Amino acid sequence: MNKSVATKKRQARTRKPQGGLPREVKMLLWLSVPVLLIVAVVMLTKAGAEPAQTVDVSRLIYPDSPVLGKTDAPVTIVEFLDPECESCRAFFPIVKDVLAQNGDNVRLVVRYFPLHNNSVLAIAATEAAGNQGKYWEMQELLFNKQSEWGEKQTPQTALMLQYAQELGLDGDQFAKDLSDPKIMQKIERDNADAQALNVRGTPSFFVNGKEVSSLSQSALQSAIDDAK
């Protein structure tokens, strides 16, 4: 055999693979995919099967928390919400429907868990409107107009002032209350409680102190029925 040809064949046999992982490693990765999928399914199933936690009610309700419904209602829904949260907006009519269907048997308590750029400002707007007796009207208005002010990188203060005007509020007082230290302290307290209670997102519901583990109208109604 020609010496140069033999040398080339020897070099070809010893040449390292080019442009990617060795074949054996690729095969191992392909074989591991089904195993990883099974592990993921098992973990998700286990997470979904976790029993709902019952928490310290004293950390759920404060005298200054916004309440809708009779104070002596046998069932209390505590909702941790964020006015800028799209899921909270989507769940807003469901909460209204649940309250309407259960009448005086149920009351709603609102707590805050701000997670977006304008969340604190929006919460302050609802509280400032509440100082003038229009808390629930401002909450509904913010949800209905969330596409105007939500998901913005800059404070949407001008829009909040415009909404206050639409509700017929005293604009000067509203603007002053937007940065009221008491409102800011309430937001910080609620945020700290949400984290202490292991609230993982918004909206999150507790019915008579028991966490509603599934986010649906049927799950919320079922929790109410169990609490009656």
UniProtKB/TrEMBL annotation:
Residues 41-228 form the Thioredoxin domain. It comes from the Bacteria. Signal peptide: none annotated. It holds the Pfam family Thioredoxin_4. The keyword Oxidoreductase applies. Keywords: Disulfide bond, Oxidoreductase, Redox-active center, Signal. PROSITE patterns: THIOREDOXIN_2. Belongs to the thioredoxin family. DsbA subfamily. This is Thioredoxin domain-containing protein. It comes from Herpetosiphon gulosus.
